[in-house]
Amino acid sequence: MTTTQTTVIVQNDNGFEINLPKLFFKSGLQGYKIFLDRYTLKAKKGDLNPGDLVLVITVKDPKFPQKEIGLVQQVFEHEASVLLQDGKVVKESFDLISKPLETEPEQVKDRVANALASSENPNNREYWVSSFKDILFDKFIPGGRILAGAGVSGLTLQNCFVLPCPHDSRSGIMDRLKEMAETHSRGGGVGLNLSSLRPRYAHVIGVNGVSSGAVSWGKMFNLSTGLIEQGGSRRGATMLMINDWHPDVMEFITAKHTPGEFENTNMSVCISDSFMEAVKADAEWNLVFPDTKDQDYDSIWDGNLDKWISLGKSVKVYKTVRAREIWDEIVKSAWASAEPGLHFLERSNKMSNSWYFAPLVATNPCGEQPLEAYGVCTLGAIDLSKFVDNKEVDWDDLRFTVSTAVRFLDNVIDINEYHFESIYKNHTGNRRIGLGVMGLAEMLVRLGIKYGSSESVQFIDNLFETIATQAYLTSSFIAKEKGSFPKYEQDKYLMSGYTEALPEYVREEILNNGIRNICILTVAPTGTTGTMVGTSTGVEPYFNWRYTRTSRLGVHTETVPVLDELGIDVNNLPDYCVTAMDMKPKAHVAVQAAVQRWVDSAISKTTNCPSNYTVEQTNDLYMLAYDLGCKGITIYRDNSREIQVLNNIQEEDDVIACSLDDPDCVTCAL
């Protein structure tokens, strides 16, 4: 395909020479590798010719296989020799070589824009193809599943899924395991709440024995996650959760203390407001579970304890403890190894626009999407760094981009292939989308505002109010054109904790037009796509100005391009240039709370803490997150994990010890 896109030539003295598209000028070959590996169509294995641009696995590590860009030299019966950038020639089997059919962003833009505009009125279709192409890869980066799968059959275009709590039976657990594996195989990440499963040692009448417990069954989901290759390229991603009332909650909190256990899953505890009140009052807390002998247990029990009790059903108190004991164990475990996280699920439900028809039961693997059973979300991110010129924000351009992106994501729902009828019915019934951001830290550097300062919190509040109001106005406008989501009930929708706080003029538009999408906003990590385009990821500050990143593409040294672009000396930084480790942990939480005010779903954000941060300080941080209105919190204390994805460079080859912002996580791979 002919393209007018500017390129630079990357070459060495051994004959290696490729054209690097303009999109990757900031991120270099690492960004180009991500693009080629994750988001392009691939030729059939063995369809190779001399001179072809390929990706080849050069280090066959099961978790972090090293991939390199190369040029095919010779093709043999079952293998080919490939010239790498460093001048080495390797000979590998066809199975370890992938050939991108799309080598430039314009090709992917054409495929994606045409696919997404196909759901528009034919009279307007060309306009929307052009509009989508104008923002794609420039000011708006869709979720990785959209980039990889739009216009292609067989892959889901959504990143985030939550499956129903497993039915408390062997067949029910196996049914849910099958659904999870099927979702993983299509590129989706899965959240699952185990609270429906009876606790350890509970009586099982059918076999006259006792249950091994919710945590034990969770190991099956962990094992499956590590086995499934997503879309043929990476392992699955899973979030396992348990509610604060479940008798196995302490076992769940400490599950990862045993080496080798639950290595393939994220884990979080679902926290209620009543539990937090008990913690603050140092009160007792009952660990309970429904009476499994109830005649309606098998037909009614689905993990929703409030519904069970509202039906007049009895519960059994397995143990009474101080709420503070559970809380302290969560805090100590998070301090030691960054897990489990916690999610204030009752708060999420009170704020949820779907409160009147679909209770939220768990979150996706990175925690930014609390979802209902068979819930799914369609993700994409605005690159905020593109809206600053001479320390001024182009607010009109930002609003236009938000509007176009909302329409783009809404169209994804219509062209997606759904692998389960239950997911199709649910998603088309509520039309949930998750517009997020990347590049916040770069935006602040360009504006000369110190991330985490009072000035930044005030600016961020204004920024996200602008994004939220424009997104809701756009969704309401689309509803006038195409109709509201099917489960829309005006009075109940406008009673949610979130919509009640929207500006009155936005609520008036919803009253007049309805609303197209049940929820519209989220903040995913964008760990991979942010790295691909060379900007800061999600709403995170820069980890450092120079660091190593370990991923499935290997270990790479990365620098922050904006410093060079603005002529800032890394050895003489202005005071507004701060990194994640420069900031006080409470400043991280203050930023998260400012963003959360305007986000109807949730936020994936890491609160970085120094290695000498204490358990007591961690406790205060978790309490602060709750008091400021956050829906969850994840901390990472430096060097608290053996393997760390982002690492400060102390000496040239000294890679220290976090799998946070994990490029192999489905949602992080946005």
Would you write up a description of this structure?
The protein is α+β, with helices and mostly antiparallel strands. 35% of the residues lie in helices and 21% in strands. It has 22 helices and 30 strands. The protein is globular, with a radius of gyration of 25 Å. The two termini are 26 Å apart.
Helix content: 25-40%
Most strands sheet? 10 strands, mixed
Strands, count: 30
Assembly annotation: single chain
> What is the percentage of strand-forming residues?
15-25%
Index terms:
single chain; 670 residues; alpha+beta; ten-stranded mixed sheet; five-stranded antiparallel sheet; 30 strands; globular; disordered C terminus
Helices, strands, pairings?
Blueprint: E1 7-11, E2 17-21, H1 28-38, E3 53-59, E4 66-75, E5 79-84, E6 89-93, E7 97-98, H2 105-117, H3 125-135, E8 140-142, H4 144-149, E9 160-162, H5 170-185, E10 189-193, E11 203-204, E12 209-210, H6 214-227, E13 229-230, E14 234-235, E15 238-243, H7 249-253, E16 265-270, H8 273-280, E17 284-290, H9 297-300, H10 305-310, E18 315-322, H11 323-337, E19 341-343, H12 345-351, E20 360-363, E21 370-372, E22 375-383, E23 388-389, E24 392-393, H13 395-415, H14 421-430, E25 433-438, H15 440-447, H16 454-482, H17 490-493, H18 504-513, H19 527-533, E26 546-551, E27 554-559, H20 561-566, H21 585-596, E28 606-609, H22 615-627, E29 632-637, E30 646-648
Parallel strand pairs: 9-10, 10-15, 15-16, 16-19, 22-25, 28-29
Antiparallel strand pairs: 1-2, 3-4, 3-7, 4-5, 5-6, 8-22, 9-22, 11-12, 13-14, 17-18, 19-29, 20-21, 23-24, 26-27, 26-30
Helix pairs in contact: 1-19, 2-3, 5-6, 11-22, 13-16, 16-18, 16-21
